[in-house]
Amino acid sequence: MNVTEQIVLIPLNKLVSSSLNVRKTNGETIDELAASIAAHGLLQNLVVSPAKGDKHQVIAGGRRFLALSHLARKKVISKTLDIPCRVVDGSGSTEASLAENAVREQMHPADEFDAFKKMIDEGSGVEEVAARFGLATTAVRQRLKLANVSPALMALYRAGEINLDQMMALAVRDDHAAQERVWSTAPKWRRDPEALRRALTEGMVDGSTDPRARFVGIEEYMRAGGLIERDLFQANHEGYLTDPVKLEELAAAKLESVAGTVRAEGWLWVEILPSDEYPDSRKYGRIYSVPAPLSPEAQAEIKQLEIEQDQIEEKYKDGEDFPQEVEDRLDEIESRLEELNERAREFSREEMKLAGAIVALGNNGQPTIHRGLVRPEDKKKLKEAAAGARSSNGHPEGDNSAGEDDKDGVSATLAEDLTAHKTAALRAALATRPDVALVAVTHKLALLVCYKSDTYDDRREVEDAGSALSLISEKGGCRLNNHAKGIETSPASLKLEEIHANWRSRIPAEPQELWQWLLEQEQSVVLDLLAFCAGQTVHAVRVNHGWHSDANLMAADHLAQAVGLDMADWWNVTGESYLRRVKREQILAAIQEATGETNLESLGKLKKSELVQAAEARLAGTRWLPEIFRQ
């Protein structure tokens, strides 16, 4: 190879790229290299060979040439700036290019980490170093974090016994002893990055997921003197809080502040719980808030709008898409109904003196307040107060005026629909639980036989005890399709049909033969049939007209707990089953509760129909349930 032994200065605009350069892939770091050249100058000459005219082609140093060209376009340097070049003749061009690119050894990342740390130790700032090398400040901090890993582990990294992902996990803490202990004690199959990170942060609190950290806030925790270990290698991670005791104290103080505000409302008692659990309906009674009365004009308008809404939905019930003008009208109706029903709800001041509230921290990091709970020792006093109010006001118990929301925050019509589905699910569940059915039937019969007398007070006490069973079959009692449209195709109804068909194939075809057939069966068979028949008598529908006993509905909750009913197994949230029939804020609250999403402003700006569609997608598969199903 004939190499000219001289370095010459060639203007940048007289240089061109060459196809003879063996490095075909230049990567995506030209900006970084350009920043380095601007800060430090060209530290290595280009290798060129003569080309046509007065041009020279760059056969080695292609990335440097691209970086210089980038700086010229940005007017950081002149396009005629003299560039030092080593000139070789054409016969040796490919060999010279290969020699420079193949023989040159890449710097080990550990050397780069150490070099960055040395620059910072010598007084350079992070921002200055980032600018000089064309890096983001985060990238510089990440290199400094890696440079602070234990020297013993860094040596293993240089030797190839630890990979970069493992080093990033080990860097989550600056404690060298802890890093070495976790690495040395972990078996090889437990040295994946996540396992190392968990081991090093054991005893700390995850600032991104822990409800207490989200409730208190990282800034408030640090203002109180709390320390934090930052994980620079997890995007948008809040870090790990190293003082759980301080965090617990701050969370308790903040919950106490919330409780103080609730106490000021006038409740008999307020209790604080560290985590949110739905109050046990067997332990507590309840009082309910009611909306402010509607004017006669507003009631009439609501009724007319609901009639129009029902007529539209009935017209397109077969799945036909709404025309745009019809969808716009439904949005107008929904907005107007929300406006008319947007009334403050309040509890009776007299009832509040006998009830209380629980303040708890939810999994989403927000406080949850359960108001209107009545302790067992106060239930009798509440009944007496309610009886006095009924007699003085002349209103029957359970009266529910037209147009008002149900006590669970949904319309009375939707409450009737949902509790019909709950009744169907209870029937299906009880139909296969002879142990619970025997208790339920005995309980109902004992109420009727053992406690009845002719005095009003005794009758009232028995009615208040409540039972979820009517002991009247579906044919003679509660037909659920009268309360919820399409319920006959629900999972619970289909399950009941299957069980019914199975029994009809087992018992005699003629009813006159049933008695003798039962006498001849094993007791287990009789109990199984009893369970199915008892299940068919469950009545837990909350109707929006006439009188119904809250005690009976509470008894249905007790029955649900006894059979282990989970309505998520029997009901799915959809636009038809729930979302189209509640307010916007209830849809957004459901999304937040089910998914943990907090930034819902964009969803709140959608049309109601679009919001319903978006909510269906987000809630699918989450097993989310409205509050009426959680009791």
Task: Outline the secondary-structure elements.
Layout: E1 3-11, E2 15-17, H1 30-40, E3 46-50, E4 56-60, H2 62-73, E5 82-88, H3 93-103, H4 109-121, H5 126-133, H6 137-147, H7 151-158, H8 164-170, H9 176-185, H10 193-200, E6 205-206, H11 211-216, H12 218-223, E7 228-229, E8 240-241, H13 244-263, E9 269-273, E10 285-286, E11 290-291, H14 296-315, H15 324-341, E12 345-346, H16 349-352, E13 356-361, E14 367-374, H17 376-393, H18 412-430, H19 434-450, H20 456-465, H21 491-506, H22 514-519, H23 523-535, H24 550-562, H25 584-595, H26 601-604, H27 608-619
Parallel strand pairs: 2-4, 3-5, 9-13
Antiparallel strand pairs: 1-5, 3-4, 6-8, 7-8, 10-14, 11-12, 13-14
Helix pairs in contact: 1-2, 4-6, 5-6, 8-10, 14-15, 18-21, 18-23, 19-23, 25-27
What does this 3D model show about the protein?
- The protein has 631 residues and is α+β, with helices and mostly antiparallel strands.
- Among the domains are: 3-103, Conserved hypothetical protein from pyrococcus furiosus pfu- 392566-001, ParB domain; 412-569, no CATH class.
- The chain is 50% helix and 10% strand.
- It is built from 27 helices and 14 strands.
- Helix 4 packs across helix 6 and helix 19 (434-450) packs across helix 23 (523-535).
- The longest helix is centred in the middle third of the chain and has 20 residues, at 244-263.
- The chain starts with a strand and ends in a 12-residue tail after the last helix.
